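Might you be able to review the protein record set out just below?
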Amino acid sequence: MLKIFWNMMIVIMLGFTLGFTLGSGGAYAHKDATGIVKTRMDGFKQSQQNFKDLIRAAHGNDYDTVRTLSVSLTEWGQQINQHFPAGSNQPPSEAADTIWSDASGFAKAIDDYINATQDITAAAIAADKPAIMAGIKSTSDSCTSCHNVYRVK
């Protein structure tokens, strides 16, 4: 009985170790990044945190915070393209070559993101929670769509 217990504990600990190792891969990628690659990775990481905070604020009906964070996301969107100069997809970059081979598509993806974040701002000013939630979904969809095409997995 004791042997079964210890075998189960080993399996559980292995599962935790493997899950932590695989789940933290993005953190390792950022560790080795330098220059413009690090700058943009840090910018995306900050925008991801701002988006999570915005969602929490929306659920809490904190429209001033939603507005502030959506403006910050819009400003990031307006800077994204300048963080992808030609030749800046060296490891540990997660940028796909399609960013440069389909520059107009990448620009449209950025515009979709900016428009979605601006919709959130307008909805926050109007204290229109259903519109905020729709803007959150549009923003999330724009991120997913962009990453599916322009990010190496």
